[in-house]
Design brief:
This is Mobile element protein. With 50 residues, the protein is mainly alpha-helical. The protein has a domain at 25-50. It contains three helices and no strands. Helix 1 (3-12) runs antiparallel to helix 2. The N and C termini lie far apart (47 Å).
C-alpha cells in the first residue's frame, strides 16, 4: 500500500496520531520547518515583523 493510502486509511479510522508516531512524522515536520527558516535567512528580501 502506498504511504498516502495508509495515511488516508488511518485518518478514516481515527488513528492518524498513531500513524504519525509510527512513521516518525514529527521528525519530517521539524526538518521542513528548519529548511524553511534557513531559506528565509538566505532570502535577500528579509523583512521585519511588527
Amino acid at each position: 500500500m502506498y504511504p498516502r493510502n495508509e495515511a488516508v486509511k488511518a485518518l478514516k479510522e481515527d488513528k492518524l496520531a498513531e500513524w504519525k508516531k509510527d512513521r516518525d512524522y514529527h521528525k519530517r515536520s521539524l526538518a521542513k520547518t528548519a529548511m524553511f527558516r534557513y531559506k528565509e535567512l538566505l532570502n535577500p528580501k528579509l523583512t521585519l515583523r511588527d
